[in-house]
Amino acid sequence: MHFLAVVVLFPLLFWGLSLGCGVLVERLTGTRMPALLLMPFGFGALVSVSQFTTWWGPTAPLTPLILLALALLGFALGRDVLRARWRGRPGGWWWGISAALATYLLVAAPVIVSGRPTFSGYLLDTTGAIQMAGAERLLHHAHHFSTGLPAYGTTLAAYFGTGYPSGAHGVMASLGWLSGQEVIWLYSIFQALDLSLVALVLTFLARRVGLGRWPAAVTGTVASVPALVYAYALMGSIKELTALPMIVSMGALVLCARPLRLAVGARALLPFAIVAAAALGAIGIAASPWIALFG
Length: 295
What we know:
mainly alpha
């Protein structure tokens, strides 16, 4: 059951909360958005909101419940739209979902094939352990890293106490708390799920340039896991892999900008603002050139 909770329950929770928050973003924007982009936008909302809630001590432990509440609010406000989407779903709609699932299975394969909770990162250095420790500390004590334990506290303060990006950590720890699983077993799975969102965005882009449903899904899957990106997953580079779906989502919004602007005016800026804030939260100032390019 523990293994299934890690490789099945946790992904369903990740996708479910991302979808709920994506529907909430759609409702706040006031127009219908491409279905394949709902989860990436929703994940951006999870990252952005967790950055605020984990910054203040009293709200940090409430972060999991706040993220869950936002997703449930999205489902409540968008239930009629979701029903209409489901009734009017086109043939072959599942190809886009299959791209996300295939990407998750590919990247998480070392964990899944092992048949037990573990992590795939070869941990180039001790960074992976510091990321996990920081995620746990962040959720309980916000950005206060003075622990009274010199080695532990000094190491965390040297990372997270100096402006180190923590966008991925609050979400990962929050979903871990909601699923009842320890962060160490979710570390690799979380990064595989990040890349599953990249597959959704790239499948959307492939469809927009004229590819059929299954060629677009194959393209989205293959393009999501090139050797360099997969190496980042094996190395445990959580910042870069969390920023990646946000960066490609900004690119996808370029294609949606004109119809969104014509439909809802200034509210069309909301999705871009959310994913841009999430990119900054995930990887820091390094996201600025991408924001400037797509903005």
